Give the backbone structure.
Amino acid sequence: MTFRNLNLNTPLFNALDDLGFEKPTPIQEQAFNVVASGRDVVGIAQTGTGKTFAYMLPILKNLKFSKQENPRVLVLVPTRELVVQVVEEIEKLSKYINNRVLGVYGGTNINTQKQAVAEGLDILVATPGRLYDLALSRVLQLKSIQKLVIDEVDVMLDLGFRHQLINIFDLLPERRQNIMFSATMTQEVDTLINDFFRNPIRVSIAVSGTPLDNISQHRYNVPNFHTKVNLLEHLLGDTEAFNRVLIFVAFKRMADRLFDKLDAIFRDDVCVIHSNKTQNYRLRSIEAFSAGEHRILIATDVMARGLDIDNVSHVINFDTPDYPENYMHRIGRTGRAERKGESLVFSTEKEQDAIERIEGLMDMKVPLLELPDSVEISTELIEEERPQIKERHNPLKRRQDEDAPGQAFHEKKEKNKKVNQGGSYRRDMAKKYKKPKTRGDKNYNKRSRRK
Ligand code: AMP
C-alpha cells in the first residue's frame, strides 16, 4: 500500500513526495475513504500515528479553491502547542495548494488575530476559548463551516472544555461533517459522541491485545476503595520490589482522593498528575518521578498518555479500565526495553465485567491472587460506592427508610413542627371576617357561609 492507492490529487502527491512520505500509516489508510465520504467519523489514534494527515488529506483533497472570506474547515484542539503543530502539518501538505490557513489561541493579542481573520481564510485551527471569543466579536463568521474536526477530544474534555464545545456547536451550521479524534476512549468522549454525532463511523488502529511476554500480570478482587488503599499500603511497604510505581485511576477526583490517602502514609514519596494540576506542577511531578525522587506516581489515563518513563517496576490499575484498550496502554508503561515489569489490577464486584473484557481482548486469563491476611477489609464506603436508588416511588426504599431511620434521624420537637405560613395578621383577619385570601377562595367562602 502506497499513497498512490489513495484517491489523492497531484498537488497532494507532490507535497507528500517532497516530504519523502511513501506509505500511509494504518490510521491514514483506514480513515481516508471514511472521512472523504462526508459521514461523521470518530477516530481513535494516538499522537505519532499520523492522525493529523489522516483527517487532513481527505479534507484538503475535497476543498475547492474559493475566494470567500469565511472559513470552511474548523479544527479545534486543546492547546496552543497543538494549534501550532497542526497548522505546520497543514502547511506541509498545502505546499502546492492555494489555501489560507490560520491558527488562533488564547493568551495572545486578540486584535492581531481579528485582523488576520478579517483578511479571509479557508481553514481555521483554534483552541475553543479563543475561537468562541472571536465568534462573539462577530469578526469571525462560522456560518460557512462545512467540516468540524475536534482533535484530542479526550484531553479537551478532561480539561473541562465540554461546555465551550457545546456553545461552539450552537454557532455552527447544522449541516456539517463532524470528525473527531481521540487517543483514549473515555465515558465523557462516548457521551459527547452520542449526544452530538450522527451515526458516526469509527476507525481505529486495533490495539494489540497481545501483552509483552516480559510483563507479568496479576489481579486482586477487592471489595471497595478503602480496602484497595489498605492493599496498596501493604504492597508499597515493600520499597525494594515496588521501587518505581505508576498507579492508574480513571478520574481526577479519584486521583486526588488516592493521593491524599497515600501521601498521609508515604510522605514525600508520592506525586500525582491530572488535568486540574497546572502544567508546571505536572512537569515537576513527572521529573521527580523519573529522577527517582518520588517512588509513586498517580495518574489518569488521559494525562499519562504522553509519559515517557523508563524502569517502571509496577503498573497498578487501582481501578479496572472500562475500555480494555486502556488496560493495554496502561500495562505497556512497564516492561519497556525488554526489562521485566509487573502489572496488578484491582477489581471490585462491579468491575468484574471489565476484567472479563480485558481477558477477552488478550485471550488469556489474568491469574488471581488472594488478598494477603494482613490487609484489613474495610466496610466503609465512599460516596460513589453507596447504593443509589433513583426511582421516586420505590416501595423497597421506603420500607428500608422506615425500618432504619439512620443516625441523624429524630422526631422534630413540637415547636419545630409548625410550618411557617407567613402573613399571620392577614390570615387571622381573613379567618375572622371570612374574607377571601385570593380570588379563588371566594367561592369556597361563599359555600362555607351558606352552610
Ligand atoms: P501525528 O500523529 O499527526 O502527530 O503525526 C506524527 C508525525 O508523523 C508528524 O511529524 C508527521 O509529519 C509524520 N507523518 C505523518 N504521516 C506520515 C507518513 N505517512 N509517513 C511518515 N511520516 C508521517
Summary: Residues 19 and 42 are 27 Å apart (CA to CA). Residues 21, 23-25, 28, 47-53, 89 surround adenosine monophosphate (CB under 6 Å). The radius of gyration is 29 Å.
